Amino acid sequence: MDSSTAKIQARFDERRAGRLRSLITEELIKTWTSDPGVGHREPFCWVLRFLGRRPPEERVTVYESVPGEEWCLARPPARRGAPYRLADRRRFATLDEAREACLRRELHEVFGWGEPPTDPADGPDLRVDGPTLLGYADRISAAPGDPIAFMVSAEGVERYTTELVRLRHVDDNPAGPGVRVETVPDAWQGDHRGRAQTTRLGSHIAVPDPGGATTGLDGFAVVAYVHPTCVTGVRQAIVARWSDGDGPRGYALGLDEEGRLTLWLGDGAGETATRIETPLALRLWHGVGASYDPETGRVVLAARPLVNSVNSLLSPAVVDDRPQVAEGRAEAPLAPADGGELLFAALTPASGHYNGKIESPGLWQRPLDRDALVAAVSDAPDAPEAPLRWWFGTPEGARTAASLSVPCAGRPEMDGRLVNMPVRGVTGRHYTGEADHYAYDPRGYGAIHFHDDELADSGWEPSHQLTVPDGLPSGVYALRVTATDGSCERAIPFVVRAPAGTATGDLALLLPTATYLAYANERRLGYVGVVPPGTAVLEQRYDLGLSLYAGHTDGSGVCYSSWRRPILTLAPGFRVHLSPFMLAADLYILDWLTELGYSFDVITDHDLHAEGADLLRRYRGVITGSHPEYASARMLDAIESYVDGGGNLAYIGGNGYYWVVSFHPELPHVMELRRGLTGTRSWQVRPGEEHHATTGERGGLWAGRNRPPQKLFGVGFSAQGGGPSGWYRAGPDHDGEVARTLLDGVPEVFGDVALVDGGAVGNEIDRYDPALGSPPDALVIATSEGLGDGYQFVIEELEGTNPGQGATENPRVRSDMVYFRTRGGGSVFSTGSISYSSGLSANGYDNGVSRVTRNVIDRWLAADV
Fold first, then answer.
1. Among candidates 675, 456, 418, 450, which has minimal Cα distance to 553?
2. Contacts (Cβ under 8 Å, ≥6 apart) of 609
3. Which of 379, 620, 621, 776 has most Cβ atoms within 10 angstroms of its Cβ?
4. Would you say residue 715 has pLDDT above 80?
5. Which residue, among 804, 800, 827, 817, has the nearest Cα to 765 in the 3D structure?
6. Are 153 and 133 in contact (CB under 8 A)?
7. Calpha distance 453→426 (Å, rounded)
8. Does 863 have pLDDT greater than 60?
9. Which neighbouring-strand residues pair with 764?
């Protein structure tokens, strides 16, 4: 029983807390406040890890109540969409004071250590309200002369202005060059009336019914095979022909607020609900069905577990598979639903979305008797054949599960269309575990997984249909929208690339837009110790969709991310707990290239995926962004072909080219990820579901397909962590002729100043390792120092659960800077650190990181290379 696990855990926690309490001292707390590295050293790391095991909603966090000026203590949201909640009435003028107060509060709550809080509070909610401007573009990049549409929602804003701005540097850190955003004169300027636009979350399938075959007026029976995954406290429809705009009309079979199988019948004035009183067991396969006879008003419901040894959470040996049946009577005749669509996995397009898998729904245009209905939900050999049946698996012989429609057998006019990208290529009730790809076992993969929070396209109407001005230089730009009363503004970024088929610079800056999509609107990877304003906003705006690090309502991992929605984590000035990150960190590189006078264009992962190596061959050198973690096969093929053919690449980042992603063939704004059974991951796929629906290829790590980043970039992911960053020291190969050229003017120790965490080696780091495919003749011109045990070795290389995997004990927890040549005369330079880009502008661009990068690029551009 679940309660047994909880009791065991509670007993463990009680014993552990008693032991740890004796280790806590006033001196440790004061030391931790001034030196965060103490939190990664014994004994205090044991205390902090114990606190970190608590659910986030039970903890206390530091909340930035006035940006950069004031902090308070708050409780994290208890549920999705809820705000943070005030936990203490005190206000703190410095972040250090707030962090210390938060720690003391948690130590008292958990260990009973220290004095009780003097001014605790339980509210009010810390809501982030007020006028808001949101928006997105219909494309990631465009060339001069190309059309581009912007969708804008003005919430509480009557009028707003527009202008085109160019983004160079958006971090306001006083140690750096500051915010550098320029208005493009006379471009896209205007004054506009605001209007709010809304987004419909939730995936489902819509079936057109022009002939009225599914109205149910002459009676009906519906059967489906389902694998429900959570109870949400609201209705979840499995099959519905329903409307409620002018009173409830139609019918719906689904789960009620408590997870019980229910048939609702609407007569236009009210509704009748008939249900099986025992909730459907979650994460088991069931056959479910309902029948309605309009002549007698009789309603019959039936449900039966359909569990084999591998298709469900539990063994069939412990599941009671006897059918359950309930009967009732409708109080008034069924009134037909308005509209002409039958829905699977939703009550209406905007409500009642279902969480879980559905397979092979069928419909009869007449009622079935009790025995026939039980036979149908049991999938018995003598069950009546449904005249309308939809197949949710892949067609025989299909290599992908990318289709956006499901066929209705013999009735092509009633084929269903997928809405908001439910997950295909998932296991069904006939899954045996003998094959792990839907192409080799279509019968075992006959299901689709639906979620009530999926989003493929916000579907907003265009607010501004514009054209990129002729002659506009390549770069990162944004449409800036500003409320005329000054209450709010938003910048919607996009890339202007060179005109089609051309290059306007010697170099290309390759922005990792696939990684931008993976992190899009990431709210919190677990507990957030210090909550900036952006994180608080996103916690209240789940209508903006999820990142690929998140879980759906039912806990399954999010495997689709869409560009066509507001992505606030890309908006300049929008600070979340990861900031400065993604685009802001890559603008460090753009700013540096600009400051040093290099001629360059900006391109994106999406451009590279679409055009391949031909795009790169226009340039004498290509520079990546700071964290190109996600890559498609086409992207890797293009880079490999480019450097093999004489091209030069600088991988100025860390943890790059790690996860396999793909793009939908019909919806290129949608990217797919399947996190496999290894790797540093926030979730992992269910057994048998590692292959992408969009392409059929195996997902997970590129290393799992024998294409680790070490082979092409010389280094690969070695560790991640927090705390103070490290620096570089000249490496073992620093004294050769090539290395001396690259390190000319670079001190032996460098990278010890940066805009983020005090050093250029940090966040996530990569190392050189010939055993993993690094070129044996590559030069390791620098390697890292100064990292603490907040940096831990990657789990995919661990063969056991041994201790001692931090930077102070494991020599593989390091960053290496490498350089090597390819057989075709090209070269690769890799820095092995996400934080590297934040060191480029330190000390007015006069530093070792800046110098070595300049030496590499100048070598590319020299006539004899």
1. 450
2. 514, 632, 634, 635, 663
3. 621
4. yes
5. 817
6. yes
7. 18
8. no
9. 720
CA 391/CA 443 separation, integer angstroms: 10
Residue 143, phi then psi, degrees to nearest 5:
-105, 160
For 283-326, give the DSSP string. TS-EEEEEEEETTTTEEEEEEEE---SSSSSS-GGG-----EEE
Q: Return phi, psi of residue 374, to 5°.
A: -65, -40
Whole-model pTM: value is 0.96
CA distance 169 to 592: 9
User: What's the rounded mean pLDDT across residues 133-141?
Assistant: 98
Cβ 464 vs Cβ 160: under 8 Å: no
3-state DSSP assignment of residue 676: coil
CA atoms of 248 and 246, how far apart (whole Å): 7
CB 500 within 8 A of CB 145: no
Neighbours of 5 (CB within 10 A): 9
Tokens at residue 478, please?
């944004």
The H or E element containing residue 716 is strand 716-721
Q: How far apart are CA 359 and CA 402, in angstroms?
A: 17
Q: Which residue has the tokens 């962590």?
A: 721
Whose tokens are 């309200």? That residue is 129
Span 400-459, pLDDT tens digits: 999 999 999 999 999 999 999 999 999 999 999 999 999 999 999 999 999 999 999 999
Task: With residue 61 as reference, give the H or E element that holds it.
Answer: strand 61-66
Look at residue 865 and tell me whether its pLDDT is greater than 50: no
